Amino acid sequence: MRNKQKYQPNLSAFLALCTRNYVNILKWLPENIQENDTWVVKGQFGDLNIKLIENTKYTQLLSLSRHLPTSYFFKSPSALVRVYHDAKLAEVLTSQQIFRLKPVYDYPNLYMYQSDEKWRVNAFLEELLKIGRLPVSDFS
Question: Which of 12, 51, 72, 82 measures 20 to 30 Å from 91, CA to CA?
Fold first, then answer.
């Protein structure tokens, strides 16, 4: 029987991922937005619906979602993302049914989250942000 090593997060790689997400968000984040403003980022691969939930001096809390046709097999992707302007990072706080992401999960666990679930959700955000390659539209 093989002894599986416990997952050890790579903090440098995680911070690099959050930095890339921050840079991608800045490409379409308007400068003069107020709390509860919503807009759509249109891209070649779909639209990203954004809402500014919280706006403080150094951070912003964004709700991101992508509408997909109704399916019994999967939900439309959505996430709450904290944008840290002082640290130049963007991190997923909640995603789909996970309301508070832990840095590491024991595996197996009751919900069958992966040991590196936080990494995976932020990596998925990076892919989701690739939708928004075109300029901001429908700003309200």
Answer: 72
